[in-house]
Amino acid sequence: MRAVLHKDRVKVRVVRHDRKNRPEGRVTEIIERSSGPIIGRLLQESGVWLVAPEDKRYGQDVLIPKSATGLAKTGQVVVVQLTEPPALFGQPVGRVTEVLGELDDPGMEIEIAVRKYGVPHEFTDAALALARTLPDSVRPADKKHRVDLTDIPLVTIDGEDARDFDDAVYCEPAKVGRGKGWRLLVAIADVSHYVETGSAIDIDAYDRATSVYFPRRVIPMLPEKLSNGLCSLNPNVERLCMVCDMLVNAKGEVHAYQFYPAVMLSQARFTYTEVAAILTNTRGPEAAQRKTLVPHLMDLHDVYQALLKERGVRGAVDFETIETQIVCDEAGHIEKIVPRTRNVAHRLIEEAMLAANVCSADFIAQSKHIGLFRVHEGPTPEKKDMLRNYLKAVGVGMTISDDPTPGEFQQIALATKDRPDATQIHSMLLRSMQQAIYTPLNSGHFGLSYEAYTHFTSPIRRYPDLLVHRVIKAVLNKTKYQLPTLPTPGEAEAKLSKRLAARVKAPTEKPVKISADEMAWQAAGLHCSANERRADEASRDVEAWLKCKYMREHLGEEFGGVVTAATGFGIFVTLDAMYVEGLVHITELGSEYFRFDEARQELRGERSGLRYAIGTRVRVQVSRVDLDGRKIDFRLVHEGEELVGRAMKDKSGGHAATLPEQERGAPRHGGAKGAGKVSGKSAGKRSELHSGSRSTGTDRTSKPPIQALKAAVKKSASNPGRKLGKKPRRSGS
């Protein structure tokens, strides 16, 4: 391994299997060296210049000749290009190509992340030059062959910090068939009018595939003139849009729909908080300021309730998760981490967007035109087994069938919503599902329980939505949209293509021939899916860095928290007040041997029977923060030996020594989406981050409570063959 680096492509020969039957190999050939840059800190040790990579997966420092350091100074974060690859007896050599600045500079974590994950963050000169030629407002010629909706009171509803407005909505009562219903308009920015296929802006947008959102900064998919100006549905200015015009009946079913290009004028820019306040109190101060628009908001709320009712009938999955928001001051320092709660206005817009997306998918499917669908498959057999075992272990009297429906997941979620460990159960339900991808091969959306679904509502920030707009326009004009020639799929796309290959042909069937057009759309879907993952990883990395930096100021402090994951090497605890997650290593749990129960997702002490399961409440001390590794370590705090004392009293049953229900309490925010970002989403990813990379030189000596020590002495006396403190060999810790 000394001759290779992270991202190198190699050929490997399997030489043996370990005791867990995992294959071990030897690198026999280096097929391709990674050409990407390495980001790290420039250091000088004993007169030798080197760069310590920020990404610990590289595993080796890069030597820098004195003449290749450029203007960089010791301790600064730099970008390095390799000039010599590593060898069995020599370190890699490189040269500094860019100086990013000091590690504590505001925004440094974002500068590192965009380069670490290869996020394009600078538009090409050609794209910027083309953007400058675009008009500042809608021209009379742009309005030709469009429906004039400027007299319709369409409004935008977004977050307080939103700067680009993709969508506007309007609703009014209407007769649907013989019954009552609503006419719902969802107007989406017409990006495709300004971004032509194959243009310089289009090439840059395809390369990015999505906007990337960081705290305090956004790397947009489109130049700012488009994303915040010409395409954004700003209030009181005319804008071009594509409209999904729907008739919704009293049952919440879309009775009919049509698509058409239009020109609109947003009557107001609402925030979610403002709309929620108006819907809660139509006579309050917020409503008084928007008197003329309040009736339309009430109509929107009525159609939302009907759509929500239909969602329940459909059996779509609807789990409550808590996202976190990092609040910073003007200098970029973190002030606090707060939960980002969803109110009725969030849900209202979500249901309206879902309805428009379903109509766009149906429109493309009915037209027989190839396009990109948003596909979400059901759980794999392995994940189904894992979920069944977990539900049985935690005492949920329900399970899923061999061919589960989304309704089964929703029934379990509803049945357990009042349990103290509801958040953890919902987290396991989510974890058992696969990730959604973009593909021209439609197989429905499992989680939302739709036969066909696509993304239509965010073309300013998502490239698949832009493609869907182009396809819909082509169908309306009775033409066919042709994808431009696309680059060869990369490594990330190749991984995702395996999932598509399984659906292209069954093992017993002949291979299905795919046309060049279908292959181009498949490549586009894989590219967009892979870059969506890239954006998520970069965002998580920045949030993890910020949370680690924030927790450095709280070293040694104690907090209450809840166990959100258990692994063979310890437990992950999410703090109540901070919404930050860290690891309590297994060596910090006491002097006895803890065994990991995968089915129950818990660690259990062999002598005391003490269990640390998902949902268990604990008190911890912040013991170590590794900024480079994005890891936070906690030390368990035993208050007056109560935990262990209580655990050793109850030895009567097979499930002895779990904490009483009232002691565990309801985890406030365990398993939260944002909280889990410090160390990864799942236990599997946590294992990669923590299992083999414990730091040296850290004080990990724990002082077991006196009762546990006495019990150990007593057991040792009755069993002379086992010495006090001697533990069986532990794997995976």
Q: What is the rounded distance between the termini?
A: 23 Å
Name the beta content range. Answer: 15-25%
Specify the structural class.
alpha+beta
Q: How many domains, in number, for the residues? A: 4
Total strand segments: 28
Kindly provide the radius of gyration, computed on alpha-carbon positions and rounded to a whole number of angstroms. Answer: 28 Å
Sheet having the most strands = 5 strands, antiparallel
Number of helices: 18
Q: What is the residue-averaged pLDDT? A: 83
In the sheet with the most strands, the strands line up as: 5-4-3-6-7
Q: What assembly state would you assign to the polypeptide chains in this entry? A: single chain
Helicity level, as a percent range? Answer: 25-40%
- Contiguous low-pLDDT stretches (5 residues minimum) are 502-506, 640-733
Principal-axis shape: globular
